[in-house]
Specification:
Length: 255
């Protein structure tokens, strides 16, 4: 995947023209079509994946689904590749395109989630109990957009492979935790990969002034993501501290 002697921008242009790097999106679209033609297969696949939530690996899958949050994906991936300006420059367009591709279909289809269709007795839920706007999966779209972003923006073969693997685990986790059908995550994955391809393509051809502003906006977005993560951590620490105080105060006196 790497080409010696090429800079990040030239490498990105080479990768954008590489038909093999379209495979993740093509595979996701093919699986989406197959599941749409066979709803029973979609249900059976969900049941098999969701059953993992009842086993000892449940904490891992819950962690994986939390890692699919937009702030976490952007913060981690851009922290790993902050030296590649194109990766930061493409962040604003990626967010805009992926948001449009995922949030417009959600209310239009208003597809019921597994919990609403199968009931509480048949679905193991890890996290919030969601029932509406299932299609497509925003977490899967965000995860695959992040993986595509670093892949097309010139990341190493190892980094790109690890990012794609992580995105796949995050997408699968959405079925395991009971939030989405398999068809939701495959369509989300295709949208995310396609959205990142478009954004990197557009960002790489932006003029000097536009490129500078995109880079600045990207840095601001990444900084806000990190600020959000740190703030959330501080709140959790304060909440856990207050719970410890309440627990200690509530203990009966031994004297």
């Amino acid at each position: 995947m790497n080409t010696p002697g090429l800079g990040a921008l030239e490498l990105a242009r080479v990768r954008l023209r590489n038909p093999w790097l379209a495979l993740p999106a093509l595979i996701a679209l093919s699986v989406t079509l197959a599941l749409w033609l066979s709803p029973e297969t979609n249900r059976q696949l969900f049941a098999g994946l969701n059953n993992l939530a009842r086993g000892s690996t449940a904490p891992f899958w819950l962690f994986a689904t939390l890692a699919g949050d937009t702030t976490v994906v952007l913060a981690l991936l851009t922290a790993m590749h902050w030296r590649r300006p194109l990766a930061i420059r493409a962040v604003p367009l990626t967010l805009l395109i992926v948001a449009l591709l995922t949030h417009i279909p959600k209310p239009l289809f208003n597809a019921p989630r597994p919990l609403a269709v199968l009931g509480v007795d048949a679905v193991a839920v890890l996290g919030p109990a969601l029932t509406t706007q299932s299609f497509p999966s925003g977490h899967a779209a965000t995860a695959f957009a992040g993986a595509a972003l670093v892949t097309f923006a010139g990341a190493s073969t190892l980094s790109a492979t690890l990012a794609l693997l992580a995105a796949t685990l995050i997408a699968v986790s959405r079925c395991v935790v009971g939030a989405h059908w398999p068809i939701d995550v495959t369509m989300g994955a295709a949208f995310g990969w396609l959205g990142a391809w478009i954004s990197v393509y557009g960002s790489g051809r932006a003029g000097p002034v536009t490129a500078r502003w995109l880079h600045r906006v990207g840095l601001v977005i990444v900084a806000l993501c990190w600020l959000g993560i740190v703030s959330q951590r501080i709140v959790l620490l304060k909440e856990s501290g207050s719970k410890i105080k309440v627990s200690s105060a509530g203990q009966p006196s031994m004297g």
